């Protein structure tokens, strides 16, 4: 059975050593294993337990509790690893234990409580069998440990004609992760695009309608897929069934492997899908989009 059907979201539930219950999108999970022996490197980040060797490849092991501000396990043997693969990287999250896989609707996932702040490390909250489950913002965890992702300056990357193609074009950006939102926004602004950013699909939908009515339509939407209440797939569906904004070019920008999402993205009417985060690849995707819109080769 597919892990994503309609607006269903499959979550792997797990606990930290404090007993805190968290969930992570199952599509981000590669495997679950006992914690193997670790090599502790000098000058490692304090939230990194060490490096494991998994089938001949090095795997960075993160003490997830410490990474989100809690006390970690004293013993690496006490617990297991959730091996995640997203945003072009693979890492192991050291946790107390995993419990089970559950399905919920993205419509039942609510944004983090007001006042949760930038240290919340969650993208949403839902309820499973009467228990509150917080959904981990793994992108924020990784960014706090290794912020030097592909955010290279784009000076000199574009030819003059490409700069002219992008200059001042109106783009709407939506992402519920503040880290991902800021990364993408930095690239769009470097490229000279006229950007507006929002944190939810509902807000994006409203902005698209409002700007269209004001005769200042957005030409292109860059949207995350995983978002509370309405995900990127359902956002695209809503856009395509709304006559006034149906022609909006939609680029779905996801931390998941884009090959897993391309078929579904196309089926709901998205124009393109791209895996986060590469400033060069994002720039190329934007150039392709505007060339297509302008009828250029």
TrEMBL record:
Residues 8-147 form the CheW-like domain. The modification 4-aspartylphosphate is found at residue 224. The keyword Methyltransferase does not apply. It comes from the Bacteria. It holds the Pfam family Response_reg. GO terms for biological process: chemotaxis; phosphorelay signal transduction system. SMART domains: CheW (SM00260), REC (SM00448). Residues 170-291 form the Response regulatory domain. Keywords: Phosphoprotein. InterPro entries: Chemotax_regulator_CheV, CheW-like_dom_sf, CheW-lke_dom, CheY-like_superfamily, Sig_transdc_resp-reg_receiver. This is Two-component system, chemotaxis family, response regulator CheV. It comes from Ectopseudomonas guguanensis. The lineage of its organism: Bacteria, Pseudomonadati, Pseudomonadota, Gammaproteobacteria, Pseudomonadales.
């Amino acid at each position: 059975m597919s892990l994503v059907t309609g607006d269903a979201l499959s979550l792997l539930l797990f606990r930290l050593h404090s007993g805190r219950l968290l969930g992570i999108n199952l599509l981000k999970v590669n495997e679950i294993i006992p914690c193997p022996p670790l090599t502790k490197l000098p000058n490692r980040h304090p939230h990194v337990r060490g490096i494991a060797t998994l089938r001949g490849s090095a795997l960075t092991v993160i003490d997830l509790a410490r990474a989100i501000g809690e006390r970690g396990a004293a013993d690496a043997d006490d617990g297991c690893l959730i091996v995640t693969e997203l945003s072009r990287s693979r890492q192991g999250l050291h946790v107390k234990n995993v419990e089970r896989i559950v399905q919920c609707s993205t419509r039942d996932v609510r944004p983090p409580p007001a006042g949760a702040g930038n240290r919340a490390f969650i993208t949403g909250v839902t309820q499973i069998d009467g228990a509150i489950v917080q959904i981990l913002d793994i992108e924020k965890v990784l960014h706090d440990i290794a912020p030097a992702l592909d955010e290279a300056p784009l000076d000199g990357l574009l030819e003059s004609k490409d700069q002219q193609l992008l200059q001042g074009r109106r783009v709407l950006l939506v992402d519920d992760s503040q880290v991902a939102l800021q990364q993408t926004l930095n690239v769009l602004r470097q490229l000279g695009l006229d950007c507006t950013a929002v944190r939810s699909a509902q807000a994006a939908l409203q902005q698209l309608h409002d700007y269209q009515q004001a005769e200042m339509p957005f030409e292109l939407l860059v949207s995350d897929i995983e978002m509370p209440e309405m995900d990127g797939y359902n956002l695209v569906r809503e856009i395509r069934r709304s006559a006034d904004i149906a022609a909006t070019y939609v680029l779905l920008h996801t931390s998941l492997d884009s090959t897993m999402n391309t078929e579904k993205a196309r089926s709901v009417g998205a124009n393109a899908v791209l895996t986060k985060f590469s400033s060069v690849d994002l720039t190329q995707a934007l150039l392709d989009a505007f060339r297509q819109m302008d009828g250029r080769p």
